[in-house]
User: Fold this.
Amino acid sequence: MRKLSITAVVLLFFVSFEICHANGSSFGYQPSMDTASDKSSHPDTQQYKSSRTFGGHVLALPSYIFQGITWPVSYGLKTFEQEFPNLFKGERAPYGVYPLFELGGDAGAAYGLLAYHNKFLPVNHQVRMEVLFGSKDYNDFDLEYEIPGFVHADGNLELEGEYGNDPVKSFYISNITDDNRRTFYDKEVKMAGITYEQPAAPRLNWILEGQWKNIRIGRSEYRSSSDSTLQFSPDRIGEDSFVSVGTSMQLDRSKGKKRTVGGTRYKLGLSYTQSLLNDRYRYVTYTAEWQAFLPVRFLPENRRLAFKSRLRKAEALEGKEIPFYELPKLGSSYDLRGFPSDRFREDGSLLFTLEYRYPIWNFADVSLFMDEGQVFDGFENIQFSDFKTSYGVGLHLYGAGGFAFRSEFAFSKNHSRVILSINPNF
Amino acid sequence: MIERYRFMGDIILQKVFLMVLLVGFLGCAGSKPYTSGPIKTFDPDTADIPEPEGKVQYQYWDRIHNTFFYQLEKPLNLNRTFRSFGQLLGIADPEPAHNVNQLGEVPESSWYTKRHYYHHMSPEELARGPNTVKPDTGGIWTIFRGKLKGANSGFFIEDENGHRFLIKFDGYKYPELTTAADVISSKFFYAAGYYVPEAAITHFRPEQVKIGKNVTVEVKGKKVPMNRDHLQQIIENRATNEEGKIRAYASKFVDGKPVGPWGFEGTRSDDPNDLVHHEDRRELRGMRIISAWLNDTDRRDANTMAVYTEEGYIKHYVQDFGNTLGANGMLIHEPIYGQAYLVDPRYIGLSMITFGANVRPWETVEPEVSYPSVGYFPAEPLKPAKWVPVHPIPAFENMTPADAFWGAKKVMSFRDEDIRAVVEAGRITNPEAETYLVEMLIKRRDKIGRYWFSRMNPVDRFKAEHQNGQLTLRFDDLGVDGELFTERESSYHYNIEAVNQDYRSTGTAEKPEITADLSALSRRTGDAEPTVLKIHLVTRRSDHETAEKFVEVYVAMERRGLRIVGIEREQ
Assistant:
């Protein structure tokens, strides 16, 4: 009986349509004036009018409510367009200040400001400053100054300074998967660096880097209720200053305007670091990375597989040590994305990433990805069974100039991570 | 207890039942398909109103609103949703336009005037369009406003006759492209019945241009006084003619005061004359067909202009045709334009769930540009029913087959020689390019005509006569007139009945003329309502598959003679 009644209600609606249809009228609206056969006035003296009937208003009620709810958003967007038209044009003004926020990581959430000037001084020098504040003591300041066309027409000199303080850094060592073996430490960094980049040959870039940094490691006050009672090792507490120099080469044989749709990229890097305050640390770090992009057969080239493999190894020199915070790590928005930050740390790291990227629109790709990686202390200890897996899906957005933003959801056996970044993975 | 709940449930259901019944019937109201009064030919929306305040012109908001907010809002309007269900079940028609008369035509108003389709315009008249004057290139032009923005730079001038013009240029890469498109399309829109600003191609020498007092341009975000260097930056590397004069597009300032855009949805609250929802105006819904023909992809609120006239009402202009034909502003159209929105959830969703296996038709096409002055303007990709501008437009989304037919009539009214005359107004210097553009316009026109004239019965312009007890109904078969179908393959099956008398007649005519003996009808006398004949007409094409939709023509047998008092078209 009840089913019958519901059916009757639905049918009635359609019957009412049928009646409207038969009469050739406009559902929910009053009939237009000229259709009336009122001879008392010429139709040319009376205006057409769209006016909803009472029933029409009742049926339109949900849309009125929607308009009411979204009114503040629409008002805000309209005001925003009037006040900041450049943001809508997708063009950045030559200088400006933007809000900045960072989600995820140990800090949870951090907020700040980004200020930049792309035409600093009479020439095209670029300056950029980021200030980020997170939980109680977390903060980060970055200053970059870039001089394009330095020495060589395509040369680029970058000066960089950073101050960072993070009282709740997670610490895991080696490849162990037991999450309960986490401890915390407090880290403060001051850094000044200089980087010079110049093309050595077509598609081949040569980079020279020099850096000074001072790092203070302390005990963190933070304790998580779910963690074990493990204590951060007192051996690792202390302060040191470092100087490092490095060089790297990047051969870019990739192709594609906005998206990379084919070809390969190779990166080789070597750096030397030693401590300045004592003679405890001296080491080299080398990195080799290979990226390949392969279009999927029978489909347009922008449906492609993207592959990245990266090996990173730090070697202590002359019996000295490598500070734990300078060891190769895995667990970030660029590798083993489904794990927490710096989840694995050891003398070496090996990573393989495979992504299937396909466009859903001219400015957006979906990426299905899988990361496999492990850390190790010596090459002989690399085991197939030690690879950790993370996987996920992402949405990559592109602007006129190329990659603009990615939002990824990554998972591993016990963890997940949401990544929002303006930098591509590769 | 359970029984009690069940009882209450039944009461609630009964109430819902009654509410639905009430709402359903309140939602509609009927009227007969013909009028016994005069046919409405003018919509008097030109009454004197107080001068409205200028409305802000958003460049992005209307796109965001129409792409996201409006799309979410649409299904929440249950008038629309239930009607869509009704259409799926075949028991409801799409929402008809709100400003059509009993003949399915749009009365003239501050939006629209009957032109070429109704009163044939000569090729010269078509090429002239709305133009009354041109910029006086014999005297000095004084710049009173400037814009320095790369290829998009331009300025406003006043000539020695006191006429004010907007001066724009072609992009550096495609000389003649944008200026020609702007002029040509504005003429077609004008002939179709819309109000457009006067536009022409002009040529000038820099020496004849002087910069007025207090004119500024924006340089690196700062306003600075405009000087000759700025002028030189604006005009350098622009297209020139054989005399070395710079080619430009000149658009005359309209009479009256611009008060912002008019928009394709809702009404203007500060205009008491504006009573019909814009999304339900036939001339705006049907504009989609004209836009499809010209690939007018950037049609949107910001490219419209409401003008407060000296007579004290708001007149509605369509403007900015720089993204029509093969031009996309300073560049050329890309293959996607006209085929999908800039953000198109239909295709995005499909790509997402098929993991990219769905290859969209425009993805694999590299735009082929044979003539820089024409850009990318092929006929082949045009799908008349699926054409869309870059962003959704509520009026275009609401287009019904009847609106589309109205638009298609306008497009098909341009004969080959008409098109040639209008294209010549674009002053494209390469004759081959000009010929190519004409060819593409003809092909696109015919595609539109063939599509819509196969889905709707394309008979129109009815004339009825009564002589010696005989009815003669003559009409135009627009499909035959447009040379889409031949006379030989066309026949017209009719069924005549009297609405208020017992009379029937059936037959088939081989040409667009129906005759019937009316001597059996009794004559009405005195104040009695005149006899009304309903002529049910179906057009058949022997060699083509067409929808064979009917047209019902209502003819009143009045004392002064026969009069067409209603036309109904099956959709």
